[in-house]
Design brief:
This protein is an alpha/beta fold and about 475 residues long. It is about 30% helix and about 10% strand. The protein contains 15 helices and 14 strands. It binds guanosine-5'-diphosphate.
Length: about 475
Amino acid sequence: DGSFPYARSPPDKLLGGLLPDGLDERSCRSRYESSMYRRNPGRRPSPHLIAKLRKHEELQRRCGPNTNAYNLAIEQLRTGKSVGSPECKYVVSISYRGLGNRILAAASAFLYAALTGRVLLVDPSNQMDELFCEPFPGTTWLLPRDFPLASYTNFSIDTAESYGNMLRNKVLSADAPATPAAELPAFAYLHLDHDYGHEDKMFFCDDDQRLLSNVQWLVMRTDLYTVPGLFLVTAFQEELDTLFPERDAVFHHLVRYLFHPTNHVWGLVARYYRAYLARADLRVGIQVRNFDPRHAQSPHVLHQITSCVWREKLLPELLATEEHAAPAPAQGARSTAVLMTSLRSWYYENIKGMYWDRATATGEAVSVHQPSHEGQQQFGKRSHDGKAWAEMYLLSLCDVLVTSGWSTFGYVAQGLGGVRPWVLHKQPDNLTSAPDPPCFRDVSMEPCFHAPHVYDCKMKRGMDTGEVLPHVRHCQDVSWGLKLV
Ligand code: GDP
């Protein structure tokens, strides 16, 4: 009936029951409109996951801000002492670093909250309140501004109340006999940042989880996708297995459930898609992330990108310049739109130029687009983050993805889209030629957990955590990282 011009089949607005019904559509148009833009309907959530989400939403409503239970819990936090069996327990997720990191962190905190029956509250700093719609009906997931731990955004590896420091200083112990519940503090800070230490990493051990389950308030700082680590905690395994029978789609479900662009960002996505991408037969997304500014305009990186897309037959090859009087395109020849995202425009200019200057071997038309080139990563600037979020989302609407290894920006796009990407190898610092091979096909669409623990909690000794479970393996882009496959 024309109401779903871009999807292949009638869109399933609620994504197979993943999304709750009954939210106001106008205040967050992306939540229900995005399915009209997706060719790939994505994976189906398990009935158990759907039931769990509805139950969790109920918890967020019962215990969230502006409820009696929340006010009581705040009072208890002020007194600093733990209480026997509190009605509601909380995890606060600190928001910092780039947008991709923030999305991975909040998704990880949410899964941890759901597994442990805690309410998730997200620190509203860094535009977290402006970029995303509220995910839970009838309540807010934003931590109120009058939260009594005033300096929580400055918590760091040195904070005395961090779980790691409390273990180190013997304020707490998870070894039997564990610290009795009555002596527990009202809150603990979980430092799960990439620079975390051995004691902080005890978070991923069963005994420590048992101890932490009695702490009413947990404040978590992470810039990592810690979910593969949660799969290694024995106490969570049964539940995770029933929630996610497809282990390679955990982030896919989490990100599509939690993160919906607010109306302004959705406008950026929808207008761009309709203007530049909708009419193409095939959309190829190429995400170029140069971690080293010296690679912002590198012929070697350009060569890496083109040899990847040609070798893997993601884009048609070009004829030599003399042959540019190419055959007239066959009737109905395919058209391809390339969506590039990058902080710079140099790669885009070059690739666009190539496809203008020379004919494709297949006669198909290739158009190349890049929404913005912001120059460099900026912090705390509204329009900058809005563009980044819109571009991640546009990438996720592509049929084929080429991403940059190591980049959480690309991880978010592939998870949202349900697309297993081709990944450009990270360029070595002393780049003298294109990495060979230029890219690899990832084994799953899951993000990589960049800094996992390497510890056997039972035997209390070092261990390769990538060798424990068949579905938790080392990543190809970050060799010591872990990912679900
Ligand atoms: P990562 O550093 O690649 O893991 O990704 P993050 O998203 O965590 O941080 C990079 C930040 O740089 C983004 O959040 C954006 O602010 C900016 N950025 C990086 N690449 C792009 C891009 O292609 N487009 C836009 N608009 N911003 C980008």
